[in-house]
Design a protein that fits this description.
Helix content: 40-55%
Shape: globular
Number of strands: 9
Distance between the termini: 18 Å
Order of helices and strands: HHHHHHEHEEEEEEHEEHHHH
Largest sheet: 7 strands, mixed
Length: 395
């Protein structure tokens, strides 16, 4: 693995950081959170048209840039630093790879170009609060998490030559504003039980979407209700959907890990700046040995998490081992520590709504609720590697 960034990768980071510094400051961030979509459409247009971020990891044949997940992860590192709310994660990291992997030729040709340009946004909807399990990050995704024939979840049945969906999905990232939903649903009854993915247009009859109050307002979420909604099967019914979800989940975890490292790095920077200005007993508190030790520990944690996250992104881009979940666990832990120390060392102001320190803590906590928690990410990775059953260790 070559740890040096290419000139193209450095340019992606530099250009995106300059744009976000100008367009996504504290005031712009809070204003974007209060919009109906939960993000600034003008900023999203700049990210899509000027920088081509939604299509960064999509093939050129479908209007993409043709880069790998590594470049997309580096872009998300900068958006993580700014906590920039946008549909980039839901569209380019969660939904588009599934359409690329499972879609028919006609579906790819019709959907991927508008996704790559940012003209169309998408969201992945899974039943309940099981996103981490559906993506194979915190549990086996070959179970009955999509419904299993019982009440709840999302059920799919074929009627009059078309598919109809019933049920409800919670915690759908950008689900209230996405123009396209990729919905995981249970079908086949008890005898042929399986999970398939379906495409649902945002304006479909019977579709009810309600934005929810989320701990992390920079990651807007929705409850999606499907009331006899007509849907299109993604790909064909012979596809190995759990395997595709697991592959997409590993890539998403690597991207999320790099994004969390960006947020942790910025939280640490802000804290270092503050302790260098704030004075007690006639001297900056950053000169106190106890404060230095605490921030040194945070720095080591962030740099270790960066190494793991970069490796996971590189492994995803090269088709290597799947270590995204482990990298995400380390990155989320580093972010939580950096954010917690930031709140503490800012003193009383760090706990106030007006200060930005709490936003990083909420990002850490919110991501753990969505994609973790950390101990489950590590436990599932250990189980998958047969680390504690006396068997041969495999990756």
């Amino acid at each position: 693995m070559d740890v040096r960034l290419t000139a193209e990768q450095e340019e992606i980071r530099r250009t995106l950081r300059e744009l976000l510094v100008k367009r996504c400051g504290p005031q712009e961030l809070r204003a974007a959170e209060r919009t109906p979509a939960g993000y600034d459409p003008a900023l999203w247009e700049s990210l899509a048209l000027r920088l081509g971020l939604p299509g960064l990891a999509l093939p050129e044949a479908y209007g993409g840039v043709g880069c790998s997940m590594t470049e997309l992860a580096l872009a998300c590192e900068e958006s993580g630093r700014a906590l920039a709310p946008s549909p980039l994660l839901s569209t380019a990291v969660l939904a588009a790879p599934l359409i690329l992997a499972l879609g028919t030729g006609a579906q790819r040709a019709a959907l991927l170009p508008p996704l790559a340009s940012g003209a169309l946004t998408a969201a992945l909807a899974v039943p309940g609060a099981g996103l981490a399990t559906a993506l194979g990050l915190a549990g086996d995704n070959r179970g009955d998490w999509a419904g299993g024939g019982r009440a709840g979840g999302v059920q799919a049945r074929r009627a009059d030559g078309s598919w109809r969906l019933y049920g409800q999905a919670e915690q759908v990232l950008d689900g209230h504003s996405a123009g396209l939903l990729v919905v995981a649903a249970h079908t086949g009854g008890f005898a042929r039980s399986r999970t398939l993915l379906f495409l649902v247009r945002g304006d479909a009859d019977g579709l009810v979407r309600v934005r929810q109050t989320a701990l992390d307002a920079t990651r807007p979420q929705a409850r999606v209700e499907l009331r006899d909604v007509e849907a299109e099967l993604l790909g064909d019914d012979r596809a190995d959907v759990p395997a595709a979800l697991a592959a997409a989940g590993d890539a998403a975890a690597a991207v999320l890990a790099v994004e969390a490292v960006g947020a942790a790095d910025r939280a640490l920077e802000r804290t270092v700046e503050h302790v260098g200005r704030r004075e007690q007993f006639g001297r900056a508190i950053g000169s106190f040995q106890a404060v230095k030790h605490r921030l040194a520990d945070v720095y080591v944690g962030v740099q270790s998490a960066r190494s793991a996250a970069y490796y996971a992104a590189w492994a995803t881009g090269t088709g290597g081992e799947r270590v995204g979940a482990l990298a995400l666990a380390q990155a989320l832990e580093a972010l939580r520590t950096a954010a917690s120390e930031g709140v503490q060392l800012h003193g009383g102001i760090g706990f106030t709504w007006e200060h930005d320190a709490h936003l990083y803590f909420k990002r850490a906590s919110g991501d753990e609720l969505l994609f973790g928690p950390v101990h489950r990410l590590r436990a599932h990775a250990a189980d998958a590697a047969r680390l504690f059953d006396g068997g041969e260790v495999t990756v």
